[in-house]
Write a structure and sequence with these properties.
The chain is α+β, with helices and mostly antiparallel strands. It has 15 helices and 16 strands. The strands form three sheets. Strands 13-10-12-11-15-16-14 form a seven-stranded antiparallel sheet, with helices on both faces. The chain has a five-stranded antiparallel sheet with strand order 5-6-9-7-8. The chain is globular. Bound molecules: D-malate (MLT) and zinc ion.
Amino acid sequence: MTPIGKDILAALQGIVGAGRVLTDAESLLRYGRDWTRAHTPDAGVIVLPSSIGQVQDVVRLAASKQLAIVPSGGRTGLSAGAVACNSEMVLALDRLNRIEDFNPVDRTVRCGAGVVTEQLQQYADAQGLFYPVDFASSGSSQIGGNISTNAGGIKVIRHGMTRDWVAGLKLVTGTGELLDLNRGLVKNNAGYDLRHLVIGAEGTLGIVVEATMSLSRPPENLAVMVLGVPDMASIMSVLAAFQGGIELSAFEFFSELALCKVVAHQGLQRPFDNPTQYYALLEFEQPDEQAMETAMGLFEHCVGRGWVLDGVVSQSVAQAQALWRLREDISETLSRWTPYKNDISTVVSRVPSFLAEVEAVVSASYPDFEIVWYGHIGDGNLHLNVLKPDGLAMEEFQRRCGEVSKQVFEIVQRHGGSISAEHGVGLLKKDYLHYSRSPLEIEIMRQIKRVFDPQGILNPGKIFD
Ligand code: MLT
Ligand code: ZN
């Protein structure tokens, strides 16, 4: 790839304006990395276009000069998918941050790629509707980034992933052409649905510049329960029992160590005094009094079977929010230990045996490291974070974790699971992609990339080399 010289900087300024081409050290660092810290950022230039036409012009320039582009949203990713460490141009979509229009009949919102998730959630709320994809980073993640990573989060069990809410999207390809995919249609079987190829492609096929997002009815009177459980197997029994009786909108879990860390560092209260090995967090709607009675009946059933040792249920919105923080604040709390993050999944029915095998490997392999479990266990997605001890060099820590990862990913492979349930592959997981994808699948991915991005300028080196 070509280095970025003065002539290119001048051409970029001609497209987006002088103040929108940044080369100062602070901006290069800020825009050159995401929430991961495993790679040293080294961006060449930051470009902030304010229209789709400008994005196309920048990409055409990059294609003509053979310049690598890293598309950039809120940079809250956890797989180094938005990290620029080879002097690339970072194309940040921050200024495409307008909600363009709302259609109450279709219940869709057309918005720029730079609209922040929370902005969309609040906009939906103001229309009496609901955008259900939610996660701890919704205050800074952007819709374009959510689409490019097919972001999941805490309500997938009920509402699915970002993919399920994209009614249409506009994409600038690696040659600077604009594709308008699906145009908000509910039904469209006219050939391949390229929209779904782009969702989750981590910016390697094109730059998402605009999206038409679907909205739904708001939930009614959400309640949150936190239950103390003695072991992983019990968590799955609790899930089956509750799903047999009510519709859950979330079923999350975390370990006692996760709870201790979050309580100590976020100034939160424990849900109840007696510690248990694991905790399940459940959320459900209460449209009427019967809903809580049913939930309490299920709770008592689980206590009677020994699957639940203790529990609390929210009595107000504030209490529900406080209980959610016990789960949602874990990731940020752990970031001070620069954890080695695993984001693995299998089909829900295989979770108990999958978990037991992973736990056996991990506890034998990391006797001197703190291991923190949490995640979206209701959809089969487990986050296993290994905390870096103070004083251990990052490289040595990564090396030791990488060795164990291979054993963990062999288990993932045996269970037909995924090495990356929701965070994506980026730079972090590309060496392990073959544990979840066959050689033929990876070769087809490469061929598809060549079609969208013939010169290989879009996020090169991410997902695969
Ligand atoms: C979460 O579930 O909290 C997020 O995926 C972030 C993380 O895994 O740390
Ligand atoms: Zn997660």
